[in-house]
Design goal:
Elements: E1 3-9, H1 14-27, E2 31-41, E3 47-51, H2 55-74, H3 76-93, H4 100-109, E4 114-124, H5 126-133, E5 138-143, H6 147-156
Antiparallel strand pairs: 1-4, 1-5, 2-3, 2-4
Helix pairs in contact: 1-5, 2-3, 5-6
Length: 161
């Protein structure tokens, strides 16, 4: 089951740096993401949001392309339109990524000069992930982790909450 983790970091660049470190672990097979998003509020208050393409979106695009390709042989003009529609429907049905509404909620409460990282994690090796996050300071805003794992994450980032 996917786990949601949202951390607000004390410094503007920390969410981006933490995601870079976690992406390195992903390349090593130590963590797998369904979706990620970054929110940064620069010191003058301007908010920047980067919601990355999720595994769900990629899967829906592949399904749509395959169906569209098959339908193109049978109904050439209709194949592309139907394939795109089916891909969109599959993506909507599989919606397991970071909720844009929740990103907006966090965005409005984030203080200037801070950043937040949203992770939907498919699987992870805590023995690798927690040390990667220890160099950053912040607050765990929300998780779907069990209480023991959530507490370990809070200790790793020196959570104030």
């Amino acid at each position: 089951m996917n786990q949601l983790i949202v951390i607000a970091f004390d410094h503007f660049d920390d969410a981006r740096s933490a995601l870079r470190d976690l992406r390195n672990l992903e390349r090593e097979g130590r963590i797998r993401f369904e979706d990620t998003a970054l929110v940064e509020r620069d010191p003058n208050g301007t908010v920047h949001v980067k919601n990355e393409v999720s595994g769900t979106t990629e899967t829906a695009a592949v399904v749509g392309a395959v169906i569209g390709g098959l339908l193109t042989f049978v109904f050439p003009a209709l194949g592309l339109v139907l394939g795109a529609a089916v891909g969109a429907a599959v993506g909507a049905a599989m919606d397991t990524g970071v909720s844009p509404k929740f990103v907006d909620e966090v965005k409005t409460t984030l203080r200037p000069g801070r950043s937040a990282l949203f992770l939907v994690v498919k699987q992870s090796d805590l023995d690798a992930v927690l040390p990667a996050l220890r160099q950053y300071r912040g607050d765990v805003i929300q998780t779907t982790l069990d209480s023991e794992t959530e507490e370990a994450l809070k200790q790793a980032v020196g959570s104030h909450s």
